Amino acid sequence: MRLIIARCQVDYAGKLTAHLPWATRLIMVKADGSIQIHADDGAYKPLNWMSAPCLMTRQEADPALDPSGQLTELWSVRNRSGDTLQIGLAEILSDSAYELGRDPGLRKDGVEKHLQRLLAEDPSAIRSDLSLVQREYQTPIGPVDLLCRAGDGSYVAVEVKRRGEIDGVEQLTRYLELLRRDSLLGRVEGVFVAQQIKPQAEVVALDRGIACVRVDYDALRGADHPEERLF
Amino acid sequence: MRLIIARCQVDYAGKLTAHLPWATRLIMVKADGSIQIHADDGAYKPLNWMSAPCLMTRQEADPALDPSGQLTELWSVRNRSGDTLQIGLAEILSDSAYELGRDPGLRKDGVEKHLQRLLAEDPSAIRSDLSLVQREYQTPIGPVDLLCRAGDGSYVAVEVKRRGEIDGVEQLTRYLELLRRDSLLGRVEGVFVAQQIKPQAEVVALDRGIACVRVDYDALRGADHPEERLF
DNA sequence: ACTTCGATCTCGTAC
DNA sequence: GTACGAGGTCGAAGT
Q1: CATH code that applies to domain A112-224
Q2: Predicted pLDDT at A228
Q3: pLDDT tens digits for range B151-171
Q4: Burial of A34 (0-12, 13-18, 19+ CB in 10 A)
Q5: Phi, psi (5° rounding) for residue A93?
């Protein structure tokens, strides 16, 4: 990994064009050839970047092409799609490189699957009269997260999301259309379950007769494993 | 901006939990307090991070809590939601800080809004008989990009995308369903406009009676500002 | 290789 | 502030 602190200007041309005026920034070149340019604030997204695989060519500044004469080096980076990143360097305040080696990588836990599992174990957390028929109930257009049965015997298709947005409602709508064609199932209701549901998604859902239920992930986890509760 | 190259291990607990085993990595601390931890490959997304605003507290390693004795420093970072990032540091290979100052920021060009504006100025570029009724016509499920009127007096809802994919067709379909319920509007057509349209998206659109139109962004810009044309 | 989908998404922008 | 849509998204999982 090579880290450079330098005054630079940058131009990107690809799916869009973008320009960075002269300023002092961090330029990071990773071992895989990828490059990112960071300012001193903002979240992790760089101001500009080029992902691997890409090819960099370097050239000394040509005074004829740089009337202001502040350029010392010009880097051109290009990827397979023909996107280009041009970095002009002026004063270099620091330039160092390190061998980091391969990273063992990140281990995650606790995403949407977990929420689905908790609700499969206790569908009454969604609505008191629900009982599970099958989790990941297969259909030709994909799996329904939870297929349940209501107190009155009718089937209920449940779509589980961490955040309920409009495309989740579309997904459930497609499942319901399909399930309702299956005359063996009889009446089939839809329930959209999420930790948070966006207002627009709720409007669309209710307009289609789909109920919306918000669930508390931490409470569910607590109910499932009381010993893990912190308070 | 502070840049540290060090052997470290990291734990995140928040919307999910994640762990990074011991390895040598880059730790970047920006002036706004945000932190990111990078390996030597991968695109710009860090292995782990904490966005500003957040608060870091530092403590010397306590041998009693670290039987292996490799820890030299322990950093705890916390944000407003209570998410925490714990970074344990061992050998520090490099540690340096720089004053970068405020960045003048990125200037972009060529995004969807610009395309929408150009088409709003001249809807005949979509179809010769179209005239604009309203840009960003509001509905309960979101704004229609362009509401136009055809030569025969019927309304035309136009969805503009840079790249036309299937979700754009879905979006326009929802608008059309809604607009057609409004008896004041009478007949409402749909037109899907983009620089490129994926074959799958076109199949779905045509199947639903939605016309597809490809537009040339550069030509539109050229027609609008002939002096800016490069060739 | 390509596609689909979630994300500790990030980022702008309108309300 | 909150909510919503777009992204040069990134990254993983499945086909």
Answers
A1: 3.40.1350.10
A2: 39
A3: 999 999 998 887 777 778 888
A4: buried
A5: -85, -25
Mean pLDDT of B121-150: 88
User: Comparing C-alpha atoms, which of B141, B213, B136, B16 is closest to residue A167?
Assistant: B141
For A:8-47, CB contacts with B below 8 A are 15-26, 28, 30-32, 34, 36, 38-47
pLDDT of residue B195 exceeding 70, the answer is yes
pTM of the model: 0.75
pLDDT band for position B221 (50/70/90)? low
| Matching CATH number, B112-228, of 3.40.50.720, 3.40.50.970, 3.10.250.10, 3.40.1350.10 | 3.40.1350.10
Interface probe with A: pick from B9, B16, B40, most Cβ of A within 10 Å: B40
Residue B175, both tokens: 């608008």
Chain A residue with the nearest C-alpha to that of B104: A21
Task: Determine if strand C comes within 7 Å of the CB of A142.
Answer: yes
Tell me how close the Cα of A215 comes to any Cα of chain B, in angstroms.
15
CATH level 2 (architecture), domain B2-97: Distorted Sandwich (2.70)
Q: What is the pLDDT of residue A110?
A: 65
**CB neighbours of residue B41 within 10 Å:** 15
Of A36, A105, A110, the CB nearest to B17: A110
The rounded mean pLDDT for chain B is 87
Which residues make up the CATH 3.40.1350.10 domain(s) of chain A? 112-224
Token pair for A33: 């050839």
Nucleotide nearest to B36 (CA to C1'): C8
Cβ of A77 less than 7 A from strand D: no
Contact B34 A41 (CB under 8 A): yes
CB contact under 8 A, B25 and A103: yes
Which residues of chain A does CATH 2.70.180.20 include?
2-97
Helix axes B217-224, B112-121, angle to 10 degrees: 50
Residue B154, classed as helix, strand or coil, is coil
The nucleotide lying nearest B83 (C-alpha to C1') is: C8
List the single protein residue with the shortest CA to C1' distance from D10. B45
Confidence check: pLDDT of A62 > 70: yes
Q: Rounded to whole angstroms, how far apart are CA atoms B4 and B161?
A: 42
Cite the residue boundaries of each domain of chain B with CATH code 3.40.1350.10: 112-228
Percentage, residues of chain A above pLDDT 90: 53
Distance from CA of A213 to the nearest CA of B (A): 20
